[in-house]
Amino acid sequence: MKEYFCDVVVVGAGPAGLAAAVSARQSGAEKVIIIERDVRAGGILQQCIHAGFGLKYFGQELTGPEYAERFQVKAAEAGVKVLMETTAMEIREDERLLVCASKQGLVKIYFGALVLAMGCRERTRANLMIPGSRPAGVYTAGTAQKLVNIYGHKIGKEVVILGSGDIGMIMARRMSLEGAHVKAVVELMPYLAGLTRNKVQCLDDFGIPLMLSHTIVDITGIDRLESVTIAPVDENKKPIMEQAQVIPCDTLLLSVGLLPENELSRTGGVTLSGITKGAVVNQFKQTELPQIFACGNVLHVNDLVDQVSAESEDAGHFAALYAAGTLPGGEALEVKPGTGVRYVCPQKVVLDGEEDVTLYFRTTAPGRKTTLKVCDENGELAKRTLTATSPGTMEHLVIKADQLKGLKGTITVTAEHEEVLA
User: Fold this and answer.
1) Whether 2 contacts 108, CB under 8 Å
2) End-to-end CA, the chain
3) Domains in the chain: how many in total?
4) Nearest CA-CA partner of 293 in 3, 42, 20, 13
């Protein structure tokens, strides 16, 4: 069995993995290896041919493949080794990663630090348990995007989309541009799940109706999808069947949330959050197993790839420091979501850190004039007031480096709405 020895190994060559690997090299790690099961690097960006990427990171608007290519070039220039068509199988004791390569078979990789950057996967119809028959024509939005953008297939003519996540709205526009008739985007919640800009550019600009507080209660069809039955829901999210309506269609796209791809993490005993389904980490993106780090959508689902890149650069930097034996350690305090906040990442703060700590979180409901606060036992640490917030948009607050030594007790993040919209 072939063996590799490296300072930092990164699992996943998507935007998170590429950024983490480049950062690790720039931070002094001499030998950095990326493990990627696909035939090319770039991850989900390969099929995201629409523009809108890179505005924050590069200061210009790029398509997904263009954004990915820039990081592929960075990785090549930094001397990062990428093992393509190689699947990470298991994290073992004594800092070993077992992988299966298409040409070499089983390979052992010994590492000083491991960065998990496997991304996320879509919830499927099986996750939702939508009743009805099992015809052709039902896809997750990401699968439909790959079929249309990578393979050039025309997958349907009359389309309904369940879920107002960003990829669902983007595919509503894409299907319209391909000549299909998108009849509606149906959303269970009384508010938008994705970014407002995508609603404007992908739904409003194309005259596609958004049906909030609605869900699909039945799917009909033998060989091919023939129709879906849509019903409004009450305040408890239960369908009001008396008001149900049948919408004829031949295609249903599901954009109903993403799940961090953490099967590999479980093999190593990494502690996962019950809310985000990603790893529990401190501000260094370090899990409770000190040699393992996590970043990007495998940690928590982000809004923008620019944000993924910045977060992953931190993970790569701190992984390199750990491999070199220079990463700060010591006492860590717990970070918890308070009133109006669904989750916070990171979930722990190490008091011996020497840099500002950014806490990322999502609110539980949309609201106007929202005051965001982070506090410990001593009182308020940071505060910010926004004109509006929504669960579809990631928010953040910063604890300054000079505040870390004085932190005490549990750190809590809250969001207080002057007016709750749902």
Assistant:
1) yes
2) 57
3) 3
4) 20
